[in-house]
Design a protein that fits this description.
heterodimer, A: 106 residues, mainly alpha, two-stranded antiparallel ribbon, flat, B: 471 residues, alpha/beta, eleven-stranded mixed beta sheet, 11 strands, 38% helix, 13% strand
């Protein structure tokens, strides 16, 4: 029984590592093996804690994305010219004339 | 000097804004190294701004409600004259091309922005130990945390490095540091204060709020920075009352709810005693204490730690090294640049929360986690709506403990997350909440109490807080 439990635990850890590696890819994060193990360990514990919510029957409950009931307001589509473009481009790591320079896409 | 006194002395000509600013700058220069409350300071900029206020006063301007008041700003609020880095390597020495609306309003009222304060990176933390600039020390006991994520803003007020400060609160990040440092702070109703220029963490939860030495000063700042802003579509188009008007009305006739779930197992006995004593004091002043239940309180922390990281994972997708901030310069392809920039630029707590947030939104898990959490959020909100049919405000501790030691919880993220257990529900429900001191523990550490009010009823919780403070 103890051997089965250890195998199951190792299996869950590997599954968590795979899940974390997958979402790290989605989030454009590059993790070392050591980081992957660390974050997988932390995430597993926290995600397990999330399962507390399963004690609640929410089948008839409407989700709340915003705490205050406000309909998205509209305004006139008035153009306001931003005159200090240099304050924006000063912050860009690399420019080529008016273009932002980045490494090749492929 | 209290904020009101600075304003009175400035308007009467007794002191000049440049003098006040220099005094605070000198104090910061002498003592900030030990506390590490500030991350960006610039004497020339501060004195130049103070001189502008002097010129306005000399030309006859009399309506500056914050004339000469030095205000410190959390480093996730955009300022044109100081960098805005969110205490993260990924924003490097980023300087915003615009001032946040709250900054504009403070400056129009005559305040002097004294510097930018340290914080947990991207406002993710409860202890100000997750900063690229190093931890902030609690001025009350420098071996302890000031709380987070607005730890620098709270420490700056507590150490008298400024008359007031601004912080941001997504799950308690103004109220917890106020409690740990022994000062006053208010998180307003969601939408009361514009988020334009606040670097987004979790957009349905974030709110800017003032921290100050007393309730009246907090209300004065709230008056200045509140109000609808066309640049923030979530800011509420409602009138702003004078938050100082009802401060001295007392509490006779008010009903204050005491929720059983906030005084249960896990609460430090000294904290419990101090908050219950505060409740009794208010009862003696004429308030009626009403036992209430907020039955879904225990689900608030997992709900929040699903929703907030989910929103954060989307809000932080913009940090890719393309247009601003840190960029990995050795990458050969765009994809490599994104990954290396983000992995090197974000700290470990931010990385963990992006991973959690991306996970709960990902295909196959969205309904089980994110959608589920949104439904539990409804239940938590409904608990408060039911309670507010019977009471005018709810009184609770701010935190289960007083300030903990630096390093005590950094190895266990979940243990750290549980520090927010009493502050999170207020954000989930969009309610206003104020934290103020109500005693000290046997080590001399401040204990904080929290008052939560109905939507848009900051006036009532300020009134109750002021009554208690004056006892």
């Amino acid at each position: 029984m103890l051997v089965n439990f250890i195998i199951l635990e190792d299996y869950m850890k590997e599954e968590t590592k795979k899940a974390v590696a997958h979402v790290a890819g989605l989030a454009k994060l590059k993790l070392t093996e050591e980081q992957l193990a660390k974050y997988a360990g932390q995430a597993e514990k926290i995600i397990d804690y999330f399962h507390k919510l399963n004690k609640l029957d929410t089948s008839k409950i409407t989700p709340t994305a915003h705490a205050i009931d406000v309909v998205s307001p509209l305004r006139n589509d008035d153009v306001e010219i931003f005159k200090e473009i240099n304050l924006i481009t000063n912050e860009t790591p690399e420019m080529d004339g008016p273009f932002i320079q980045v490494p090749k896409v492929i | 000097m209290a904020l009101k006194e600075i304003v009175q002395n400035t308007l009467s000509g007794k002191i000049k804004p440049t003098q006040t600013a220099q005094e605070y700058l000198d104090k910061i220069a002498e003592q900030n190294a030990e506390i590490n409350a500030f991350v960006h300071l610039d004497q020339n900029t501060v004195l130049k701004d103070a001189l502008e206020i002097e010129k306005k006063l000399a030309s006859g301007e009399k309506s500056l409600s914050l004339a000469g008041v030095p205000v410190a700003i959390k480093d996730n609020i955009c300022t044109k004259n100081f960098p805005t880095t969110c205490a993260s390597k990924i924003l490097g020495h980023y300087v915003s091309p615009y001032n946040a609306t709250v900054i504009k309003r403070l400056k129009e009222a005559g305040a002097v922005i004294i510097g930018k304060t340290n914080m947990d990176e991207f406002a993710m933390g409860s202890s100000n130990e997750h900063s690229a600039y190093g931890p902030v020390k609690n001025p009350v006991d420098t071996e302890r945390t000031p709380g987070g994520s607005s730890g620098g803003s709270a420490a700056a007020v507590a150490a008298d490095f400024c008359a007031a400060s601004l912080g941001s609160d997504t799950g308690g990040s103004i109220r917890l540091p106020a409690s740990f440092c022994g000062i006053v702070a208010i998180k307003p109703t969601y939408g009361r204060i514009s988020r334009y220029g606040l670097v987004a963490f979790a957009s349905s939860l974030d709110q800017i709020g003032p921290l100050a030495k007393n309730v009246e000063d907090t209300a004065i700042i709230l008056n200045v920075i509140s109000g609808h802003d066309k640049n923030d579509s979530t800011s509420l188009n409602v009138s702003v009352p004078d938050f100082t008007a009802d401060l001295n009305k007392g509490v006779a006739g008010l009903k204050i709810g005491i929720p059983a779930e906030y005084f249960a197992e896990g609460l430090d006995e000294e904290v419990k005693e101090a908050v219950m004593n505060a409740a009794t004091s208010l009862e003696k002043e004429g308030a009626e204490l009403v036992n209430i239940n907020l039955p879904h309180t225990e689900y608030a922390v997992p709900t929040y730690y699903i929703i907030a990281p989910a929103e954060a994972s989307a809000n932080l997708a913009r940090y890719d090294g393309v247009r601003y901030g840190f960029r990995d310069s050795a990458s050969k392809t765009l994809s490599e640049m994104y990954k290396k920039t983000r992995s090197e630029g974000f700290g470990p707590e931010v990385t963990l929360r992006i991973i959690l947030g991306t996970f709960v939104l990902s295909s196959g898990y969205y309904d089980a986690y994110y959608n589920k959490a949104l439904k539990v959020r409804t239940l938590i909100r409904n608990d408060f709506m039911e309670a507010f049919k019977k009471v005018d405000a709810v009184l609770t501790p701010v935190s289960p403990t007083t300030a903990f030691k630096i390093g005590e919880k950094t190895d266990d993220p979940l243990k750290m997350y549980l520090s927010d257990i009493f502050t999170i529900p207020c954000n989930l429900a969009g309610l206003p909440g104020i934290a103020l001191p109500c005693g000290k523990d046997r080590s001399g550490l401040p204990i904080g109490m929290q008052l939560m009010g109905k939507h848009l009823d900051e006036a009532t919780i300020l009134r109750i807080a002021n009554c208690y403070e004056k006892l």
